[in-house]
Amino acid sequence: MDALSRRHQASLRLFLHRICEDSADADDFAQEAFIASWQKISQLKEPSAYKSWLFASAIRLVKDRRKSRNRSRHREQAWYNHQSLHSADTDSNMAKHDVEQALDNLPEKERMVASLIYGAGFSQSETSRVTKIPLGSVKTYCLRARAVLVSQLEDWNVQNQPSTRGDTQ
After folding, report:
1. H helix or E strand, kind and range, residue 33
2. Could you give the CA distance from residue 163 to residue 151 in angstroms, rounded to a whole number?
């Protein structure tokens, strides 16, 4: 069980950080999902499906928590500001921030589907099974999310390019 947890911990935490409003919440959800999986491991019928089962558990936890409280955009913005202040000003950190910001602009279901497929390496079928979203809808959300992400990231790339004009005298 410990080996399974270590194998999937990073991808689960990364996924949860992408879909949660607060990094502390994401860590809490990951911990709760692992505890739930340990407690209910006997219910797992197919050991090779552990990753999907774990992610589905985490998604249920997130959805349940969201039903019970109001969403707060202020906390999300504070987290991004905090991350920006404490990260090195490198191209990769800026790109990561741009991707996270682009993901944040997606509707919840599109963000979840994009995070699972592009971020956690799930297939569209696995994503459908984990999220309980019909496969056709997963494909639609995936295409929409990709189009929006590509468009936004291209726009930001053009806006953030240094001027190529030389100073002429």
Report:
1. helix 23-39
2. 21
d(CA 119, CA 62): 17
Residue 15 Cα to chain centre, angstroms: 4
CB-side neighbour CA atoms (13 Å) of 89? 1
Q: Which residue has the tokens 């994401």?
A: 26
Q: Cα-Cα-Cα-Cα dihedral of 115, 120, 121, 124, to 10°?
A: -40
Domains of the chain, earliest start first? 1-86 (1.10.1740), 89-161 (1.10.10.10)
From its phi and psi, is residue 133 left (phi > 0), alpha (psi between -120 and 50) or beta?
beta
Q: List Cβ neighbours of 3 (8 Å cut-off, separation of 6 or more).
A: none
Single pTM value for the model: 0.56
Q: Is the C-alpha dihedral spanning 97, 112, 67, 41 positive or negative? A: negative
Tally the residues of the chain.
Answer: 169
The total of other beta-carbon atoms located within 10 Å of residue 121's CB is 11
Q: What is the mean pLDDT of each run of 10 residues along the chain (169 residues)?
A: 81 91 87 89 84 91 75 52 56 69 86 89 92 95 91 69 49
Nearest alpha carbon to residue 156 among 100, 82, 107: 100
